[in-house]
Amino acid sequence: MTAYETLSRKFKRLHALQEAAGVLSWDMSTVMPSGGAEARTEQLATLSVVCHELLTDPALEGLFEEAAGDGRGLSDWQQANLKEMRRRWMHATALESDLVEAHAKACKRCEMVWRDARPKADFAAVLPSLTEVLRLTREVSAAKAERLGCSLYDALLDEYEPGGASARIDAVFADLADFLPGFLEAVLTRQQDRPAALPLAGPFPKDRQEALGRRLMAAVGFDFDHGRLDVSLHPFCGGVPDDVRITTRYDEDDFMTALMGVLHETGHAMYERGLPADWRLQPVGEARGMAMHESQSLMIEMQACRSAEFIAFLAPLARDAFGGTGPAWEADNLQRHYNRVEPGFIRVDADEVTYPAHVILRYRLEKAMIEGTMEPEALPAAWNEGLRDLLGVTPPDDRLGCLQDIHWYDGAWGYFPTYTLGAMTAAQLFAAAKKARPEIPEALSRGDFAPLMGWLREQVHGAASSASGEAILERATGEPLNPEIFKAHLKARYLA
Amino acid sequence: MTAYETLSRKFKRLHALQEAAGVLSWDMSTVMPSGGAEARTEQLATLSVVCHELLTDPALEGLFEEAAGDGRGLSDWQQANLKEMRRRWMHATALESDLVEAHAKACKRCEMVWRDARPKADFAAVLPSLTEVLRLTREVSAAKAERLGCSLYDALLDEYEPGGASARIDAVFADLADFLPGFLEAVLTRQQDRPAALPLAGPFPKDRQEALGRRLMAAVGFDFDHGRLDVSLHPFCGGVPDDVRITTRYDEDDFMTALMGVLHETGHAMYERGLPADWRLQPVGEARGMAMHESQSLMIEMQACRSAEFIAFLAPLARDAFGGTGPAWEADNLQRHYNRVEPGFIRVDADEVTYPAHVILRYRLEKAMIEGTMEPEALPAAWNEGLRDLLGVTPPDDRLGCLQDIHWYDGAWGYFPTYTLGAMTAAQLFAAAKKARPEIPEALSRGDFAPLMGWLREQVHGAASSASGEAILERATGEPLNPEIFKAHLKARYLA
Predict the structure, then answer these.
(1) Which domain holds residue B25?
(2) Helix (H, G, I), strand (E, B) or coil at A460
(3) Which residues pair with B244 in a beta bridge?
(4) CB count, 10 Å around CB of B375?
(5) Does the distance separating the beta carbons of A16 and B46 come in below 8 Å?
(6) Chain A residue with minimal CA distance to B48?
(7) Which residue in chain B is spatially nearest to A280 when comparing CA positions?
(8) For residue B119, which of A65, A205, A339, B390 sits 20 to 30 Å off, Cα-Cα?
(9) Residues of A in contact with B36 (CB under 8 A)
(10) Same domain, yes or no, for A45 and A166?
């Protein structure tokens, strides 16, 4: 067996165990009775330790050296696979095991304190734990930056967005941050001049919402022989590529949120399902980072399903599902609901126009904290000031401000920018898809996603991690990430 | 850390991974979409390899030697734990890895051929694969017998019934085999003299069956914060002690089978739940073999829930659930259904009286095949002759004969006797429980399982694997397994 083959076997084992953990996590969030939590936590912790040991096996170093020597005998995909193996291995071996353990414990502790502090809007209560998390996260970023040869922030970003560079994000976000306040004002003015959306009267029974959701999932191309739709407190896309499990939650007073949520997760699911079957359980066969993943969910939710074409298809189905009649149930009114813009405090409730402001704020703050130019004490004030500058609103308390998201409290530093990079990528891919397949909008008006999905399979899903996200985007669209395309999309949708 | 502590850590890790596999198997049988099978098989195979490697880690031998030296410092439970660790390790290390692999592959292949051959009643089609499975199973039993210092058959039995001895089973089964034909004749004669059971007219909607099942599970003491009831093709009890997952399947023309099935699995579940919390994830904290496990399911299903007392409690609940009225829905008629005896071909459909005959037949045949005094070619004829001798009926074809059970075809040799050992153990434990807590029958007539369950927790569940099944039984009932008690139970129920 060559060194490459040995590595490939080892990573296959690692990946199969990670898949097992993925299914167990799905179970924990959907069907597990509360009393199973302790045992499940132990199972997941054990799997995580076993995976970490596989990835830090001292034999790997020699195998990587040897495999680098066979380079010429490897196909492009094999070389990309080797590169991805190496990237994972470098992340895992950059840290002393004491640091890994201390960091994991600090995150767990802080998350627990945060769960209690958030509803009480008590930032002071969580500040000591957050400070400790940050201290250790800085150590992590320093160790990884040294190993990977990159900046402190990029060392963290690389886990979520392989090869991502904050220098490029800075530029793109600066452009957006310049654009957004003026644009938002124009959108709000225009919105005021138009008739308000007519309310949709519920209740909307859960089973009808679910049936409609399944109908639309099927339209997008979701294969129920290879996946499930269930309920969980926080919607997510889990499982494995051949058994993708998405979740939602239903509110009987509002069907619109769950429905778009289902479509969002369906976008994630389609990406997983479209990954190349020949590369299952190999690093190169995995999805290409969180920004690309988010681009696929936003492609379906924001680009395709909030388009006038798709809403024209949706309106009669929604009327049928809930027995709706009258002008409130016409497509133009549904569209007014789905494209309503309103500055608010909460990121996860934000619309497409204001969402980037929430992300830019978090990105700037976490980068400053990682780089040591800001300390957590300063967070509440900096948060409120930043949100006011970007969106013109100020949270009345920290529950609606810097306590709202779990990310920093449970250690996911470097994740935030991927949301907006994903939104921009989605806009750019959708524009290119429509250029390549001009029939897409008309197909969407019939609920036919095949032309769009065919293009995505070819350009994005099938590429998996064989190239960087940037290279995949450039190959698919002819240019690197270009904020003008996202801005043009926003202008067309909200100011046309 | 002492050698014992190191071992205890290693076995905890092993056990947590086995629990993970258990949850994944539950998922596979209940909620997994068909397209997930390949990925799941890979996940389970990987977990199995990792577990095998943990158990065959060369470091264990020295640790066991060292731990044997610390013996005096260990509590009784710790010593029992060490013994159980050692037993598992000896099973795992008795076989060369080539044999393990060849055996696993042969079983998998044979099972696939059997799935095809069974509906066609085509024993000849599966004979070559079965012969190969037996050849390798004999090699396994020879290697294990040498390592464990026991007979060929006992080496296989030990996996399901630790410390079990075929010499004792031979004696007990010979006694039963003598008793059964005459007893069966007496029961059938008596049954003929009584009025036939009045039919219960369906349909019985699944949701009502499920609701009634849950009501009775709760009565037995099943805690839905620590477990679930779901549907699967083959009912089973899975999950982990703090999250026990039982399954059933519903037939809308017959509610009685699923209902007793649910109570049967609830008995298994109560055993798992009652295992001592202090010994979770340690070998000594696990259930004590398959015979004791089956005794707990049959304790609930056969001893408690087919008693006149419980059926008096059940009858009004069943009437409520299905809107039943008239004499067919009276307790005495339900009891006639639930205690009906009828010799048949199929083990899993057999009643309490004829079931042991099916098991004794299989035990004798598999023992002869393992010992080499019989070859698989002779199986169909030997099966039919044996069943005729024991039950007076002859299967018309092998589908209803030696092809009916999966066990031999997928490699579970040595398992069969535990079913009837379990039934006998259940009768003996129930008799002792009623002696110790005379209020048990009256409590059951009110659907109150607390006195029975309290006694079982104390005598059986809480003991886990701290002693042999025989020792637990003897401590709880004052004597070793005694066929007279099982026979007395049958006489009291079917001839009184």
Answers:
(1) 1-93
(2) coil
(3) B227, B239
(4) 12
(5) yes
(6) A17
(7) B39
(8) B390
(9) 226, 239-240, 242-243
(10) no
Confidence at A71, pLDDT banded by 50, 70, 90: low
Model confidence at A72, in pLDDT bands (50, 70, 90)? confident
User: Which residues of A have a catalytic role annotated?
Assistant: 265
Is residue B220 located within the same domain as residue B319?
A: yes
The number of distinct structural domains making up chain A is 2
The amino acid that residue A441 corresponds to is P
Do residues A413 and A293 both lie within one domain? yes
B83 touches chain A (CB under 8 A): no
> Is residue B71 situated within a structural domain?
yes
First to last CA, chain B: 61
Q: Per the structure block, which two tokens stand in for B5?
A: 């502590």
The DSSP string of B332-351 is HHHHHHHT-----S-GGG--
CB pair distance less than 8 Å for B243 and A33? yes
Domain membership flag for residue B120: no
Q: Is B178 on the interface with A (CB under 8 A)?
A: no
Residues A301 and A389 in one domain: yes
Q: Under DSSP, is residue A247 helix (H, G, I), strand (E, B) or coil?
A: strand
pLDDT at B69: 81
How big is the CA angle at B136 (ends B132 and B137), to the nearest 5 degrees? 110
Does residue B216 contact residue B448 with C-beta atoms inside 8 Å?
A: no
* Residue whose entry in the numeric block shows the structure tokens 């409590």: B443
- Crossing angle (nearest 10°) for helices B166-193 and B355-371: 150
- Do residues A265 and A340 both lie within one domain? yes
Cβ atoms of A173 and A222 within 8 Å: the answer is no
Distance to chain A for B249, nearest Cα, Å: 19
* Mutation choice for B interface testing from A12, A29, A31 by most B CBs within 10 A: A31
Cβ <8 Å between B23 and A17: no
A235-272: pLDDT as tens digits: 999 999 999 999 999 999 999 999 999 999 999 999 99
- Within 10 Å of residue B78's Cβ, how many Cβ atoms? 19
Is residue B20 within 8 A of residue B239, CB to CB? The reply is no
Instruction: Of A258, A269, A265, A268, give the one whose Cα is nearest residue A212.
Output: A258
Evaluate whether residue A101 is within a structural domain.
no
SS3 assignment, position B109: helix
Give exposure, A194-221, as e/b (b: 16+ Cβ within 10 Å): eeebbebeeebeeebbbebbeebbebbb
* Residue where one domain finishes, among candidates B50, B66, B93: B93
Which residue type sits at B424? M
Q: Which residues of B touch A225 (CB under 8 A)?
A: 33-35
Whether residue A404 is contained in a domain is answered as yes
Are B183 and B491 contacting, i.e. CB atoms less than 8 angstroms apart?
yes
- For residue range B187-201, what is the model confidence (pLDDT) as tens digits? 999 999 999 999 999
**In chain A, which residue's Cα lies nearest the Cα of B28?**
A23
CATH number of the domain encompassing residue B397: 1.10.1370.30
Strands B237-240 and A227-231: unpaired
Q: Are A133 and A409 in contact (CB under 8 A)?
A: yes
Residue written as tokens 């930043």? A386
Question: Rounded distance, CA A7 to CA A81, Å?
Answer: 10
Residue with tokens 């969580």: A126
Is the confidence at residue A364, as pLDDT, over 80? yes
Q: Which residues contact B487 (CB under 8 A, 6 or more apart)?
A: B176, B179, B183
In A, which residues are within 8 Å of B23 by CB distance? 24, 27, 40, 43
Q: Which two tokens stand for residue B37?
A: 């099978």
Residue B238 pairs in a beta bridge with B245
Measured between its terminal Cα atoms, the distance across chain A in Å is 61
**Residues β-bridged to residue B295:** none
Q: Are B162 and B288 in contact (CB under 8 A)?
A: yes
Nearest of A418, A370, A307, A356 to residue A150 by alpha carbon = A370
Q: Which residues contact A316 (CB under 8 A, 6 or more apart)?
A: none
Question: ipTM of the assembly?
Answer: 0.94
